[in-house]
C-alpha cells in the first residue's frame, strides 16, 4: 500500500469512529489524478449531453462510459478523501484501484475512438460538431490520465518500485 494516502499510518481507524477528511490526499498524486479525471470526465459527458446524442448510437456508448467512469471516480475520490479505505481494510484497495483504472482506460480508449470516428465535419448543426469534437479531445485527455493513474496504481500495488533483491533480504532477515 505504499504510495497510497493513509498507507504509512497504522490501521488505527476503528469502525466506530466518524470519517475524517484527509487533507494530504488532495495534494498527493493520486488525489490530483482523481480530481483531473473527475473534471475531464464531467467535460466529456456534459459536452455529449449538450448535443443530440440520442440520434446516434455511437454517442450513447460514449455517454455511458463517461458517466459510469465519472460516478465511480467520484466514489473512489470520496472513499480516499474520507479515509474510508482504512475502515474497510479487508478490501485490497491498491489492487481494486489498479483494476478500476485499467478498465477505465480500456473503456475510454473505445469511447475516444467511437467519439472521434462519429464526428462529422459536414454536420448541418455546427454547434453539435464543435461540442462533439471537443468531447472527443477531452475523451482523449481523460484516457491518457486514466492510463497514467493505472501506471501509478500498479506501482503502488507492487510496492512503489522496490526491487526483488531488497525485498528478499528484508523478508529473510
Automatic annotation (TrEMBL):
Domain of life assignment: Eukaryota
Any single biological process term in GO: myelination
A GO term, aspect molecular function: structural constituent of myelin sheath
Coiled-coil portions: none
Residue intervals of the MARVEL domain: 25-158
First-listed, main subcellular location of the protein, grouped into a coarse class: membrane
Membrane topology, record value: Multi-pass membrane protein
Keyword DNA-binding: no
PROSITE patterns from the UniProt entry: MARVEL
Keyword flag Membrane: yes
Protein family per UniProt: Belongs to the MAL family.
Subunit structure comment from the entry: Forms oligomers.
Protein's name according to its UniProt entry: Plasmolipin
Gene that encodes the chain: Pllp
Amino acid at each position: 500500500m505504499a504510495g497510497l494516502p493513509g498507507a504509512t499510518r497504522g490501521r488505527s481507524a476503528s469502525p466506530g469512529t466518524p470519517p475524517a477528511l484527509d487533507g494530504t490526499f488532495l495534494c498527493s498524486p493520486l488525489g490530483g489524478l482523481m480530481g483531473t479525471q473527475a473534471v475531464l470526465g464531467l467535460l466529456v459527458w456534459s459536452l455529449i449531453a449538450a448535443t443530440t446524442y440520442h440520434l446516434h448510437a455511437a454517442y450513447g456508448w460514449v455517454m455511458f462510459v463517461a458517466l459510469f467512469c465519472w460516478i465511480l471516480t467520484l466514489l473512489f475520490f470520496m472513499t480516499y478523501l474520507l479515509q474510508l479505505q482504512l475502515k474497510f481494510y479487508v478490501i485490497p484497495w491498491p489492487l481494486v484501484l489498479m483494476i478500476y483504472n485499467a478498465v477505465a482506460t480500456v473503456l475510454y480508449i473505445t469511447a475516444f475512438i467511437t467519439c472521434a470516428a462519429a464526428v462529422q465535419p459536414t454536420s448541418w448543426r455546427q454547434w453539435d460538431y464543435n461540442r462533439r469534437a471537443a468531447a472527443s479531445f477531452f475523451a482523449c485527455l481523460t484516457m491518457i490520465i486514466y492510463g497514467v493513474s493505472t501506471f501509478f496504481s500498479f506501482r503502488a500495488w507492487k510496492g512503489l518500485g522496490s526491487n526483488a533483491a531488497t525485498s528478499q533480504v528484508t523478508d529473510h532477515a
